Amino acid sequence: MKIGIPRGFLYFKYKYFWETFLKELDCEIVLSPMTNKAILKEGIDNSIDESCLSAKVYMGHVKWLVGKCDYILMPRIDSFGKCDKVCTKFNAMYDIVRNTYEGVELLDYNIDCVKGCTEFKAFMRMGKLLKKSKMQTYRAYKRAKEVNKEKKTKIAEEQEKLVQESDSLKILIVAHPYNIYDKLIGEPIVKYVEKLDVLPIYADVTSTKKTRIKYKELSSSLYWTYNKELIGAIEHYKNKVDGIMFVTAFPCGPDSMVNEICLRRIKNIPMINIVLDELQGEAGLHTRIESFIDIIREKKKVVKK
Amino acid sequence: MKGQEIKVRAVGTTGSARKLIGTILKAQVVKNEITAHAIGTLSKYPDTRTIFEIGGQDSKIILIENGIVVDYAMNTLCAAGTGSFLSSQAKRLGIEVERFGDWALKSKTPVKIAARCTVFAESDLVHKAQIGHKKEDIVAGLCTAVVTNYLNNVGKGKTIKAPIIFQGGVSKNIGVIKAYEETIGEPVHVDEHSHLMGALGAAILAKTSGKEQDFIFDIEEINFETRGRECTFCANNCEIICVHKDNELIDSWGNKCDKGAS
């Protein structure tokens, strides 16, 4: 059984989880390639104009997988709890894909904890759909949870260590994983930052245990789970980094609100908000990043004196 | 300086074409325009708190505290209210852009022009002309529109503190200077070399970089050529720019990955 995973959206968040689960169920995984212009073009052609850049990229990845696998893994996520919602794109993607690419076979799972659809139930149902026994599915789920936790903890610890040990300038990058790790959207920015001898620190790598408590210091009424995790990381790293860089894809709803809250409420640390769309011109972007880093370096010099 | 032999010790470039010109001139320093402008201005006016800069394609605001840049903003998406906008409107009105300021000063009742976007401003301008507003009033209206647009977009949310220095090509336009002073209620200072402040900054950076290299004034005789090509190694189709000096490749950029490097 070949299961396709689009390299977009939640893949970057759940890759260890999904990959372990599917491998434990003896499925072969077909991963779409890293985003390139051809994939983006397919995505744009198959999306409505108002869709966000990340969603357009995702649609391109799904298109690439069509015909190359038996099922395409497609989560539908609504809520993780009463005040824990996700962007509407994650509720809608399943339906958008089904209606855009007719006849596509989806391996879907539904998480909507408010209505009692938990992650565990969702994954057990997936096992059934793949004609696996309950026992095997249960084991696969447990194993996937373990591996995911191990990997995530390890990466978070490594970053924590890097923050403490490195002498270079550190910038906290606050961005959804699907934007910042995307080859076409975020990677050029990270590469450019590194070229300027700056160490990028990723907000999404912070242990969720810490972020889920700390986000409240910025806003107690936010209900977007993924954004809560990101701003919790800001609180965690605020005194350990030299600046904060928000990277978002146009026109992201949650980010447009949450980043604005951050820009207004966080004080005493240089911040920059970078909004990307599919009409990228790198010249203006480089100027902005470069001068942002210049400002931080100049400030540091003055403080040292 | 006339008749004297000039020796160039180092070269610095800035602005949107900094990389290209920097490669051609073998510059020791290639710096973004925000830092260059700030350094250039501070060398002449150390007390500066705010720099307005409007060039041909972009406009910026730079905020300075105790001699260091603390914040900046630039127009990211459109060129409304920049030099290119003014010059295209001047052409439409049949005025030389250099004389734009003089025309604006003649006006006693400037018209209101929507400044949010170049396209709207243009249709507004045509409309105002058609219903019979005088040319100088329209010109004065355009100058105010540039300022309103600037303060609402680039200067949004920024605290503007005096002393204010205004520079870039548009600072040569007395009509815009007047509009700034009327809107903000603070004097806006323009240096006689206001269009060269970025260059001055780049020069200072090159001077203090500690790097030196002989520079020969034979640039004019050497044939520089850039060739654009589309990389075909992967689906990204990066547009690669190759800079040739007398048919010899000296530098190239634009590739997203190493495949394009060859």
Structure description:
- The complex is a heterodimer of chains A (305) and B (262).
- Chain A is an alpha/beta fold and 305 residues long.
- Chain A has twelve helices and nine strands.
- In chain A, strands 1, 2, 3, 4 and 5 form a five-stranded mixed sheet that branches. In chain A, strands 7-6-8-9 form a four-stranded parallel sheet, with helices on both faces.
- Chain A has two domains: 2-147, Rossmann fold, CATH 3.40.50; 166-304, 3-Layer(aba) Sandwich (Rossmann fold), CATH 3.40.50.
- In chain A, a hairpin with a 2-residue loop joins strand 3 (71-81) and strand 4 (84-85).
- In chain A, helix 9 packs across helix 10 (225-237).
- By secondary structure, chain B is α/β, with parallel strands linked by helices.
- Chain B contains eight helices and ten strands.
- Chain B has helices at residues 18-25, 33-44, 83-93, 100-106, 118-130, 135-153, 174-184, 197-208, and strands spanning 12-13, 29-30, 50-54, 59-65, 68-74, 164-167, 188-189, 224-230, 239-245, 248-253.
- In chain B, the strands form three sheets. A five-stranded mixed sheet of chain B has the order 5-4-3-6-7, with helices on both faces. Chain B has a three-stranded antiparallel sheet with strand order 8-9-10, covered by helices on one side. Chain B has a two-stranded parallel ribbon with strand order 1-2.
- In chain B, helix 2 packs across helix 8.
- The longest helix of chain B has 19 residues, at 135-153.
- Chain B is globular.
- Classes of the chains: A alpha/beta (305), B alpha/beta (262).
